[in-house]
Design a protein that fits this description.
It is built from 21 helices and no strands. By secondary structure, it is mostly helical. Helix 4 runs antiparallel to helix 10, helix 8 runs antiparallel to helix 12 and helix 17 runs antiparallel to helix 20.
């Protein structure tokens, strides 16, 4: 791959020519360092970066300005979720700790991110979703930068926990804001494209983090993400002063961290139906996903780098969905998207355990990611409508329920693996997923019929 400074031969000629221009010695050293380090990454890294740039340009051209800002914020938050996956060995070596002990930084972020989402819904409804997103994202920027400056595993875990606390506000409230601003007949497309940014954050965040850690330092990764978060938080805060997205005055006299809206939401039958579906989606889909890497290791004997690359196929399938969501909505409609999506995910989960090689496993994961988001994006779009008076609270409850289902699924499905093996576990997941899809499609009309009812009344 040619670096941003041009071919190595051309760089050498330019840097050594005394009559062209004067370059500080430190910059010369930096240029040579970048050239020698980026080039060995090879064509795979080049195509990864090229795919990222092309997808980025396509998604940017399809979105409004404020939605672009929220999408980049979602990209950073998704990257922060996965960024430590490839960095654990490098961080452990830097601090002289074991990888097992270093893994506390993953738990710290995930725990805070999952638990604190429940607090931001009422707060966003109370003072404005954009205002909360902008403020929380600015704090996330400082917390992420603090991760780069941490001088111990314990302080790094503390910064990761603080970062997860504030990053938890971004994605649920962004989805709620899309629900406020985009008509329902166009909302599935808008949310699908937003999801594309989240998928890119997970895929390219982990991939680029691994490359930067190997050839430079893992601390640079956090500096770059922190700087991006800070820059994006400023225009979001400015926009929050121009776009009114709070509750009507008669409903706004609530405490900042009032959890009572969730009790009112759960009195609504559509909300209960949707949250039940989301819990079991997290249980079977995300819970099963946690063991896909172990299957690749046990059945195909792949290395960890290869496993990570193959698992990224799931996210690439999500990106493919985000780019084609308008076609799916137009040709299939939400009911058939749920039916077909759940059927494909169920079959693929079982087929994955019989994949004869990595090529087949990658193809299965691509199709699984595409099919999963046909179902999940339908759930997310409905979540923006079942609680129109409290979209922030509804989406926070949605995210918390999904996280709860995932955590429960990983724990209980692990017992199935220990007792009956991977094939039995994925057969159980497949049965659960298709049962969920068939059950929910029969209640989709009921959910949509009452979606406009305000559960707060």
């Amino acid at each position: 791959m040619i670096s941003i400074f041009g071919p190595p031969v051309l760089q050498t000629q330019m840097l050594q020519h005394p009559g062209c221009f004067s370059i500080p010695p430190n910059l010369v050293k930096t240029c040579r360092r970048l050239s020698s380090c980026i080039h060995p990454l090879g064509t795979s890294f080049f195509y990864l970066l090229w795919t990222f740039c092309v997808t980025l340009v396509i998604l940017i051209t399809l979105m409004d300005t404020i939605i672009r800002l929220l999408s980049v914020a979602g990209f950073v938050v998704s990257a922060l979720l996965r960024v430590t996956d490839p960095l654990l060995p490098a961080i452990a070596q830097d601090y002289g700790a074991s990888v097992a002990n270093t893994a506390m930084i993953v738990t710290a972020y995930a725990l805070a991110y999952g638990l604190f989402q429940i607090l931001y819904g009422p707060l966003g409804d109370r003072v404005g979703k954009l205002r909360v997103i902008g403020g929380a994202f600015a704090i996330t920027a400082f917390g992420t930068t603090g991760c780069a400056l941490a001088n111990s595993i314990e302080s790094l875990a503390a910064f990761r926990f603080a970062t997860g606390m504030t990053a938890a506000a971004v994605i649920p409230l962004s989805l709620a804001f899309l629900g406020d601003q985009v008509a329902y007949n166009k909302r599935q497309v808008a949310i699908g494209r937003y999801v594309g940014w989240l998928m890119m954050g997970q895929i390219f965040g982990a991939s680029l983090a691994g490359a930067l850690a190997e050839y430079f330092s893992w601390r640079i990764v956090f500096i770059l993400l922190g700087a991006t978060a800070f820059v994006i938080s400023i225009p979001i805060q400015i926009a929050s002063r121009q776009i009114f997205d709070t509750l009507p005055q008669e409903s706004a006299r609530t405490r900042l961290f009032d959890l009572s809206p969730y009790l009112h939401l759960l009195k609504s039958r559509p909300v209960r139906l949707l949250m039940s579906a989301v819990f079991f989606e997290g249980f079977f889909s995300y819970g099963g996903f946690a063991y896909l890497g172990a299957v690749l290791r046990a059945h195909l004997g792949l290395g960890y780098f290869a496993i990570g690359a193959i698992l990224s196929g799931y996210g690439l399938g999500g990106i493919a969905y985000s780019l084609s969501v308008a076609w799916f909505v137009r040709r299939l409609g939400e009911r058939w998207m749920v039916i077909i999506g759940s059927l494909v995910v169920a079959v693929n989960y079982v087929a994955f355990t019989f994949a004869p090689n990595w090529e087949a496993a990658l193809f299965i994961l691509l199709m699984t990611g595409l099919a999963f988001y046909m179902v999940h994006n339908t759930f997310q779009t409905l979540a923006t409508e079942v609680g129109p008076g409290k979209r922030g609270s509804t989406l926070s409850l949605f995210a918390f329920t999904l996280f709860l289902g995932q955590g429960t699924g990983v724990a209980l499905l692990g017992r199935v693996v220990a007792g009956a093996g991977y094939t039995a576990m994925f057969l159980l997941c497949g049965t659960g997923i298709i049962t969920l899809g068939l059950w929910f499609q029969g209640r989709l009309a009921d959910v949509k019929r009452h979606a406009g009812d305000d559960p707060m009344k």
